[in-house]
Amino acid sequence: MYKVMLVDDDYPVLELLTKTIDWKSLGFEVMSTHDNGLSALEKAAESMPDVLISDIGMPKMNGIELTRKLKSMNGSLQVALLSCHTEFNYAREALKLQVSDYLVKDTFELEELYELLQKFKIQLDTMQNNKQKEQKLQHILHKNIEKEKTAFIKRLINNGYYKKEAEWESDRKKFGLIADKGYIVTLLSIHDHPLDLFPEETLYFAVSNIVGELLERLNPLAVHFLNHSNRVFIFFPRDLGYQMNALSNAKETLKMIQLSIDKGLNMHSSSIIGETSESLFDYQNTVNRLLNNRQQLFYMLPRTVSSLKESVKNTEELFAKYDEAATEMRMIVLNKKVEQISNFIHKWTIYIMENEFPPEVVKDWFWKLLLDLNVKLQALQYFSGEYCFESKHQEIFLMEYMYQLKDWLKHYFEKIIHYHETNDQTKRKEIIEAFKFVAINLERKITLDEISSYLFLNPSYFSRLFKKEVGETFVEYVTRMKINRAKELLEQTDESVGKICERLGYDNQSYFIKLFKTYAGTTPIEYRSGKVS
Length: 533
What we know:
The chain is α/β, with parallel strands linked by helices. 60% of the residues lie in helices and 11% in strands. The chain has 24 helices and ten strands. Strand 7 (223-228) and strand 8 form a beta hairpin. Helix 3 (37-46) runs parallel beside helix 4, helix 8 crosses helix 9 and helix 14 packs antiparallel against helix 17 (402-424). It is elongated, with a radius of gyration of 38 Å. It starts with a strand and ends with a helix. Mean pLDDT is 84; it is low at 383-388. It holds the Pfam family Response_reg.
């Protein structure tokens, strides 16, 4: 439906036009009526009509002036003016404004107005169709340009592509990179990449449109290239030609782009500023360093802008802390201390972020924590096979940012404790307490009399109860748990076999080695060397 605005200070005329014409059947609707031009202008500022039918002689603002102002706001506005015989000067003025028709109030018939409205409808339909065709062509052109720009950035990433200087010069000119100007190369990274909500191509062009529109307004000489829908290279000119620091301008522009992406697409992003580039080698080097700098990207928070820095390969120190973290985590889960989860995760993520360990190492470290916890809880009979754990592996390794991994871990540990609490309800309280006692006191000597006393039970009764519920004796269970712990210490620490034996509450090293071989099928030394090799 096209919108019609009626303006006349003669109320009967307004009523006649409103009620006697079947606007809907003609494809129109009356959006508003006014008795003076000023009121109509104010309304049009809020919602522009497609058709204006107005008297000429009115108070506050006449129809000619109203038409002039509305035409300046909407060049495709269709206008019909109403007047009396004596206002021929106004009629001549109306012709200059390309008014579609001039109707004399005293003589025109409704059929004339019907014919005029049908003509308006045809003209508006034609303009709308042409506009849609133009938009479609513009969209196709824009898509082609963006795809060419993406192909260009991929050629830059491929260091061996440009064999001849002429090929590089041709591409440089084609995409608006001015020779000898020098550009600050930056990388914008989209953190959330919801391909389940948006197709890749839709997201690609949505991001490109936001970036392109802001650059046109804030820094028209800057050029952007999408590598993927979640990676955008933006080249900012080093010499802006006016009194503003180019680096400051790049930072502020990147912040504005990040804010717009957050508001427009509800997605977080961050940016890294690389080095100024002039030659082909400079561009290739900076683009590849930015793209491959996953370690710096991993630790970036939403809406932050940082300068490019080299990654440090530091791995040993993190795994030296593994046993401490694993023990702490195990105690929190076993004791169901939900309130301690946030502090635990905060403590270790702060340590990791301060040292900026490689992302793959961090993910391996956390995955090993969860894997070991899962094995222990299954051994303690807290988990059954129905709890899906393996799917978590992919979730962890798909995390691109540390803050996302932190949130995921908090949620996961809370879920583990909830599952633990639910599963507790299916077992006898005495057995659950025995499991927890062993887990907490594993690194010392544990006897049947001690656990029986702890549970206020007769040792013989507890022994029979444990065997019935668990399927092995209490002594066998404790031994199996200690051997599993010994395996962990052999894998994760440099402690001697004697030290591990003493740590687990065994007085006789020979007996410990014999026991280890019975359960593990190999001696502690062989087990450690086998793991190392």
